[in-house]
Amino acid sequence: MNITFAYDKEAKKPHYKVRHGDIHEEEFEEVFSGPMVVIGQRGPVLKAVGRTFKGRFLTVVFIRRSADHYHVITAWPSKRKQILLWHREMRKR
């Protein structure tokens, strides 16, 4: 799996780390490997909620470049409402 990140030139680090430095790059692979629920879309840009192996929920804004390439624009720990959406969709499957 290939995961690239949007870069914040002013902060000189990936965009998601500007406000959410507690998210680790390995967690993105875990989220993209498991079931995700898309909660928004604008053109090719998707916003989805997924879960890490340790049970942490992340909301990720990304572009799917190919079957195994994701370009992460930003991410943050999911809010309660987003987690409830994820659980509701998982019960349907």
Describe the protein:
- With 93 residues, this protein is an alpha+beta fold.
- It has a single domain (2-85), classed as Nuclear Transport Factor 2, Chain: A (Roll), CATH 3.10.450.
- Helix content is 29%, strand content 44%.
- It contains 3 helices and 7 strands, in the order βββααββββα.
- The protein has helices at 15-19, 25-33, 80-92, and strands at residues 2-5, 7-8, 13-14, 36-42, 45-51, 57-66, 69-77.
- The strands form 2 sheets. Strands 1-7-6-5-4 form a 5-stranded mixed β-sheet.
- A hairpin with a 4-residue loop joins strand 2 (7-8) and strand 3.
- The protein is globular.
- The model has no long low-confidence stretch (mean pLDDT 93).
What order do the helices and strands come in, and which of them pair?
Elements (H helix, E strand, L loop, with lengths): L1 E4 L1 E2 L4 E2 H5 L5 H9 L2 E7 L2 E7 L5 E10 L2 E9 L2 H13 L1
Parallel strand pairs: 1-7
Antiparallel strand pairs: 2-3, 4-5, 5-6, 6-7
Please report which band the strand proportion falls in: under 5%, 5-15%, 15-25%, 25-35%, 35-45% or over 45%.
35-45%
Helix content: 25-40%
What characterizes the major β-sheet? 5 strands, mixed
CATH architecture assignment: Roll
Shape, please? globular
Characteristic terms for this protein:
93 residues; alpha+beta; Nuclear Transport Factor 2, Chain: A; five-stranded mixed sheet; two-stranded antiparallel ribbon; 3 helices
In short:
This protein has 93 residues and is of the alpha+beta class.
